[in-house]
Each structure stands twice: as structure tokens, then as C-alpha cells.
Amino acid sequence: MATSIHETVLIGICDGVIDQKKNTSYCTNKTGDRPDLLPVITLQYPTCALCQRGLSQVVQIYCPLAASRYHRTINVFACTNPQCYGKSESWIVLRSQCLDDGIKSRQNNNTTACTESAMSRTDWCDEADDWGMDDEEQVAESSVQMPNDSTGEGNYVSSRLQDLCIDGDHQSALQPTDVPVFQPFYISVMEETDLDGFHDTDHENELLRAYEEREGVIVREIQSCESGEAQEQYEKATAKHGDEVFTSFMKKISFCPEQVLRYSWAGSPLFITEPPSSVSQTVPCCAHCGSPRVFEFQLMPALVSLLSSADTNSDISLEFGTVLVYTCRNSCWESGSTVPVEEFLVVQPDPDQKLFK
Asked: Does one domain contain both 157 and 111?
């Protein structure tokens, strides 16, 4: 998401394994597992366009937009067939929406606050605080008035709906038994500007040193004590592989290499390899309303190591550098629709995947 003044980037980080005995809902941000459907949605399970195998869920993101009455969930699926790795055709992204009325009709007006911890609930909004926010603060924050933009431009992800959860009507997609399931993890959220000083940097520095030695590029972080804000300064150098885009990518995520997702509605994606000369022409307009699509979020290399099978007797994996997700700027939705809208994504391979293993 973006504002007219600056662009806010939210970071998603793994926040522990989801207990298989505990039901999740459409408002749960998670990796792996089976998709949780909004009450009115019916999902015909997606298959790979290349090999026709059933696709496994990679992430589920609950991300309602301000100036919208809709609950809104995005599910990303991918093929675990090694022959399909790195190909956008073997992935699919689906957007589902539902009005409160649709939920209330299923729940007989019985909605309760999510009992998940604040760390595992959605905070895809400009007002999101750090991970320590308690329930009272969450409720107070949900009343913040967000900018209203009927065109969809400049929209923030709404916090108004972030704490809603449905009690007693857990609805998961019926997944074919032969489709692999990735082990589920909660995703926690924080602003990128809050990363400085939050993490233990020993592991990050170890990764950076290994990268410097291998690629012949020097990366240095300099902290500004006067402003209290993290400042980054890098010596100019050329990586051995000559990939300046990848070098820039590494610098950008150096504060938090373990991030699994970056969210910036209508913001700027972080490319890991050279993008097409005209990205706007590569991303098609919405097939339903004809509006342009905007960048919404991307999956990061650190997610790869988390994507192992939920079945201990099965061995599956997935490889990618980053996956860029673009959605309809107007987040169009036909009243009464029960079928998710397919959006657009781009899969970029990682030129140095072993760095994140």
C-alpha cells in the first residue's frame, strides 16, 4: 500500500507452527495448510496448468481494504512438481471477498473476536504497531478512519475488520487427498521501519559476511545515533556474478533476511532479478472490470525453507526467488458471487538460492 507522501512496507515473519488440532479461519495469516474459505465462497481446487497436478497452498493472507465493506482474503497456490519450479504457469493467486451480511447469515449473527494471539492476527494496515499490541489496543485501533478513495488508489489495508473471527463455522476447502500439504505456520507482521534494533543481528551479519566473501561485494550498515533511525550506507562494488539487481535486493532485506513476505499495496515490488523493461505492460488489467492491477505483496526467499510437508512420511519442497502478486486496483467483486477471482503473479528465480538454506 502507498500514500501520497511515502510508501509503507509491512514485513511478514514466521511466528510458530500452527497446532493441527486448532481451527484457523479466513482471517488467519499463515503459510501452508489448507485454505480457509469465506462463508459464501465455493472453491474448485486449482490444478497446475503445466502438469495438471493439484496445487498446494503456499500462503493465505487476510487483507481487507479501507473504504471497502468487504472481508478480503488472498490465497496463493503452487505446484510441487520439480519440473514446474520457477514457472509462473504452475502458480495461481485467488482473491475472495464477502460482506458482513454474508457472514452473519451463516453465523446467525454470532461473531466473536479472534482468540488467536495478536502476533498471529493480521496487521496489514498503516496504523500497525509492533508485535506487543494487546487486545484492547487492537480494538481501539480498529476505529481509526482510513483515507477514502473510490478509485482504489492510495487505499490502505483496513484495520476495521482485522480482529473479526467466525465462531463455530470453520470452513476449509475440500482438498484432493493426493495434493501435498505444507506444514502450517502463523505469519506475524511489523513495519519495515521498526526492524532496526528488534532482531538479534548475529545471524544476519553471518549471512552478509558469507555473501560478501562469495560474491566480492561489501555491505556495511551504519547506525545514526543522532536521529535514532537506522541509516544504511553501502560501498560501491560489483558482485562477482554481475547481478546488481540481486545485490540491491540483498541490501534491502539485510535488516531481516528471515522475512517471508513483504506487503505494500499499490507500492513498489522488490525484484530479485532484472524485471521486464516495462512492468506495467507485463501485468495485464483485471479480466473482470478492466482496471489496472497494482502490486500488493511478494513472497520472499526465506519462505522456501519453511515449505516442508505436513506429512512426515512425505518429502516435498518448492523453489523460487520471489513471487510478486498483483491485484485489481478496484478490488472488484460482483454482488452474490461465490467464486474467487484469479489475479496475476510473477515468479522470479533466485540467482543465489543457497544463501537462504
From this structure: yes
